[in-house]
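Annotated sample (chain length 214).
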Amino acid sequence: MIVSPSLLSADFGNLNKDLEMINTSEAQLLHIDIMDGVFVPNISFGFPVLKYVQQTCKKPLDVHLMIVEPQKFIQEVKDCGAEIMNVHYETCTHLHRVVQQIKAAGMKAGVTLNPATPVCVLRDIITEVDLVLLMSVNPGFGGQKFIPQTLNKVRELRALIEETGSKALIEVDGGVNDKTGEQLRDAGADILVAGNYVFKAEDPHAAIHSLYIL
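Output written by the structure step:
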């Protein structure tokens, strides 16, 4: 299983320590949520923090833009070292164009769906994207409870990927732990985003390992 710990749950009073933990862990990615207080009811951090993380973290950056008009910041995200740029279906009127712009900038393109957005909206673009991020909580805050219906969405998305021959990976974010992670694995998920489960654990390395070996 690919593990992408969520920086949103890190200790920003001692960020170096948490980034070093990520560097020495079995995590393959670092998930970074950028929020604008408009699309979601919270503000997280911006490009200066992202640039600092790029300079310190040795893992590829999985950047999730929970913002309106994410297409305006494609180059800034690229310049901050992102390998993956995730944009929300709900914020992109011209989604195909945005996906192509992300790829043209040299990043992998991800599309994110909120819990109430059905998988079927991706049918016409699923072969163009590198991954789909399914939110298993309503975006904006960490520490929320996993929405069980997400398991059915993962199964539906897996079926769509197989039907169309898409190479897209399935990523899930929200309420992920060893128990929900196992359920998500069985449903067909490829990447697990975990925040509190990792950064609030007594042994974050062990928490990451428990997801890695699923």
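Annotation: The chain has a mean pLDDT of 96.
Annotation: The helical segments are 15-23, 47-56, 74-79, 95-104, 150-164, 178-187, 196-199, 204-212.
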